[in-house]
Design a protein that fits this description.
Elements (H helix, E strand, L loop, with lengths): L4 H22 L8 H5 L28 E5 L6 E5 L3 H4 L5 E5 L1 E3 L3 E5 L5 E9 L4 E7 L9 E4 L4 E10 L5 E10 L7 H8 L18 H7 L7 E4 L11 H10 L2 E7 L22 E5 L1 H12 L4 E4 L1 H9 L10 E5 L14 E5 L6 H10 L1 H13 L10 E4 L1
Parallel strand pairs: 1-17, 3-12, 3-14, 4-11, 14-16
Antiparallel strand pairs: 1-2, 5-6, 5-8, 6-7, 7-10, 8-9, 9-10, 12-13, 13-15, 16-17
Length: 397
């Protein structure tokens, strides 16, 4: 009889415990020789930290590049406290920054059931011309076949049913979204006009009355966004202004683009202790041929590849080659970057401060080391940096 999920998980934990025991027997001076095997024993609780809610930014810095910037180097214990506008002076002529040009869609649609109860629909993934995968609140009260009126009657959403995992767990809704009474506008244009920006739950907003909606429409979007498809912003890029990009160009720093459509999974904490059991979320990406060539040229001249945000880093590493170049193309990635998984393309990382136990924090730790990353986070907390999407930034060189 084949083992079930519980038996396989038990066997995996036993293997990990034996691995830790073997490495412990070697003594601490030898652990660095086995970084991937040693790091494999890390659990989600190893990426936990206590965050005062007062440190969670509710509005962005103005102007964008006035946000604070913590600068650290992987080969030095020195930490600098600067601002994002200092970035050009921290990079060298010949370096290449890689930005994510995804565009956040106004995917949060508010409405009511026929009974009068309020509902909130977050369009998470397009499945066809009018079919979507969606997160719905309150999900448990909705019934298959029910029709929801959204955005004061602009849309009607017919609920098709709940998705189910291979294990039978109930997942997100599938729905058909149609518009009524609007001539000459596409469905996408109407979503953009009547939906609301899907800012994360930790940014406090009056969801039903649209507090700060005008602010979020402008600021929860990078200045270089152009490819619609994300329901969360690549937040490191929110700090950039046209003037900052111009100054980087004057410095001799080139800019390359990738597209990774950020999904709702990016903000979800890891809910299992064993990282091997975490179901990593999938995101669609495109890495253009021009970007592949720019990385090759940067390597040839000795320049660094600087990922602007974890989403750019994830795209680059999903396309990485063993020679530290990248293959162009499009696809879907479930790459889980964490300590024990080496980054082959990224030489420097510009990123925001992330949630405890999140895959984003684990990605940063894969690049800088878990202990160093948590030390830098502790330093940021002591210095009262602002955290999360509208917060301050960190540059790791």
């Amino acid at each position: 009889m084949a083992d079930g999920p519980r038996e396989r998980a038990t066997r995996l934990r036993l293997r990990k415990s034996r691995l830790v025991a073997r490495i412990s027997d070697l003594g601490p001076s030898h652990r660095g020789q086995y970084p991937e095997r040693y790091s494999a024993a890390l659990n989600s609780s190893d990426f936990d930290f206590v965050l005062d809610p007062a440190r969670i930014a509710q509005v962005p810095a103005t102007p964008r590049d006035s946000a604070r910037l913590l600068v650290a180097r992987r080969d030095s214990a020195v930490v600098q406290h600067l601002s994002v506008r200092d970035l050009p002076e921290l990079l060298d002529r010949g370096d290449l920054i890689v930005i994510n040009d995804t565009r956040v869609i106004a995917a949060r649609l508010l409405g009511r059931r026929k009974s009068g109860g309020a509902v909130e629909v977050l369009l998470a993934e397009r499945l066809g011309d009018v079919r979507w995968r969606a997160l719905v609140k309150p999900a448990g009260r909705i019934k298959s076949g029910e029709v929801l009126e959204l955005c004061d009657g602009v849309f009607a959403a017919r609920m098709l049913g709940r998705q189910r995992s291979e294990s039978g767990e109930v997942g997100d809704w599938e729905l058909e979204l149609k518009s009524f009474g609007v001539v000459g506008a596409t469905l996408d244009e109407l979503i953009e006009a009547h939906g609301r920006m899907p800012v994360p739950h930790y940014i406090e907003r009056d969801r039903m009355h649209g507090s700060h909606d005008a602010l979020d429409r402008e600021r929860y979007q990078t200045v270089y966004a152009r490819e619609p498809g994300a329901i969360a912003a690549p937040t490191a890029g929110l700090h950039f202004t046209p003037e900052l990009l111009q100054r980087l160009g004057q410095r001799g720093v080139d800019v390359a683009r990738v597209t990774l459509h950020v999904g709702e999974g990016t903000f979800k904490p890891v809910e299992v202790e064993d990282l091997d059991l975490h179901p990593m979320h999938s995101e669609d990406y495109t890495l253009p041929e021009a970007t592949s060539q720019m990385i090759a040229r940067a390597r040839a001249r000795g320049g660094r590849v600087v990922a602007i945000g974890t989403t750019s880093a994830r795209t680059l590493e999903s396309c990485a080659r063993d020679d530290r170049l990248v293959n162009p193309g499009s696809g879907s990635t479930r790459l889980f970057l964490r300590p024990g998984v080496s980054l082959r393309v990224v030489d420097a990382l510009f990123t925001n401060f992330h949630l405890p136990r999140s895959t984003l924090l684990m990605l940063v730790s894969a690049f800088a080391g878990r202990e160093r990353t948590l030390e830098l986070y502790a330093e940021a907390l002591r210095r009262e940096y602002r955290f999360y999407s509208y917060g301050d930034a960190m540059l790791i060189l």
